[in-house]
Design brief:
It is a single chain. The chain has about 150 residues and is mainly α. About 60% of the residues lie in helices and about 0% in strands. The chain contains five helices and no strands. Helix 1 packs antiparallel against helix 2 and helix 2 runs parallel beside helix 5. The protein is globular and about 50 Å long.
Length: about 150
Amino acid sequence: MSLTPTAALLATATTLLADGADADGPLTPAGRDRGATYALRIALESSVDAALAAEEAGLGELRSMRAKLLCLHHYAGPARARRVSALWNRLSAGCKYHHDELGPSHAQVRAWRAAVECLATELAAPVASRRPPQRAGGEALAGEDRPGGR
């Protein structure tokens, strides 16, 4: 049985966060926490990619995560998209190394892992069919629902 990319990344984060994991290895506890943070951010990005790829709007070509998060508002709902965006921003900040700042704590990374798993599950669940985004006058932006597609 093959793991999805998101599940494999969550498993990697779990391994890095395990108490006593590779205690004699080259990684410090802070290094394992930061490595788990990277895996979690990529897992969340993979979940967003999968959710948008499931839509028929041709969103697979988007490169910017910020653009994907904006599109997620329509396809996953504003509340869920805000949660994904806030978590992605925290994970991104946790991935950055600054010599004068502490990295994310072990407890914080564990909480992020639980949040990523929850959101990945929610994003994988089918969402009720949504209509294309509408302009203020009720006109479809994508040119759908009109004769000739214009």
